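Technical note accompanying the year-one report. For the benefit of new consortium partners, we illustrate the data format agreed upon in the data management plan: each record pairs a sequence with a C-alpha cell string. No post-processing was applied to the example shown here.
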Amino acid sequence: MRLKKDIPEFPLSSENMITSHPSLTMPSKATGEALIFLHIYKTGGLSLRNLVLRSCRGQKHWDTGLGEVTNQQWADYLNKLRTVPVGELASYRLFMGHMPLGLHEVLPKGARYVTFLRDPVNRMTSYFRMQHRRGLIPALSMIHPSKPDWNLLGAPLLLRTLDNGQTRVLAGANPDLPFGQCTEDHLRAAKANLDRHFDLVGLTENFPLSLALLRRMYGWKWHFYVPRNVAPPAEAESKLAPEVLEEMRRLNRFDLELYRYAEQRLREQARYYGFSLRMDYSLFVSCNQAHQVVQKARKNIKRRFMEGMGIASPVAAEPKPRILPENSTVPATLE
C-alpha cells in the first residue's frame, strides 16, 4: 500500500542523533510518576484517548470528567483531589481529560504529561463548527473579527479559547484570562512548561508519527485506530471567509509559534531514534491504513445487514462539553 507523500524524512545514521535537547529525556518508570493525557479540544483527542486506554489496560486510571472550567471551578476541583487519601491517589497511574495545566502539582509522586497540538486556524474553525453542531452557538451566528468580541459575546468560553487557546493551556494561564490578553509572556511560559513537564507534544497533522514516538517512549504495543469525532463531510468542506481566517492567524500568532516549536521538538525526537523509528513508522502507517479499510468495510456490512432486517442503525449521541457545577463532587473514576 502506498504511503502518503508527506512522510517526514528521518536521519539514517547515528551521526545525526540528538542528545542535548531537554525534551529528549526518556520517561522513567522507576520514579513512579503518573501519566497525564491533557486533552485540548479538537486536536484528535478522542482517537488518542482510546489508544492510551488500550495501551494502559490493567492500570487504574482517573478521568477528570471536565469540560471548560472557570478558574474558581478548577481550584475547587484540585482542592477536592487533595482530600483523596494519598495512598489511593498514588495508585492511579493514568489521569486524562480536558483540564488546565497543574494537575501534577497535587499528585503524590508527580506526573509527566502528553498532549497534542493542532494548527490553530484548523483547530478553531473545527471547534467553532462543533459548537454550532451542538447548538451551543445559534445557527445563524457568524464570526466577525471587526467587532471587539468577534460577535461571540454570548459564548465567553469559546471567545477565550479562540484567543491562543493552546498557549493558554500549556502556559497554565488563568482560565478566566479575558479575550485578547494572551501575551508573549504566556508563550514563553508555555514553551518552558512543554520542555519541563511533557514527554511528548504530538501534532494532529502528524498523528501517526506522534503515535510511533509514544509507542517507542513507553514501550506500548501497537494499537490501530479509526479517526473519531470527525466533522460531517459537508461541514468539513465548508470554508470561512478568507479575511476571517487571516484574522484568526493574526490573533493566534502565539499558538502558531508554539505549534512551530512543538513541530521542531517532535522532529528532533524522531531523529533521536533514527532509522529504527522510520521503519516502525512506515510499517505502522501501512498496517493502520489496512485496518481502517477493514473497519470501514465491516461497518458497511453491518449497516446493510441491519437495513435488510429493518432495524434502524443506532446513532451515537455526541458528548456535550461539561462545566463543573459549583457543588459537584470529584467525578467517579473509571476502572
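Partners are asked to follow this layout when depositing records. DSSP finds eleven helices and five strands in the chain.
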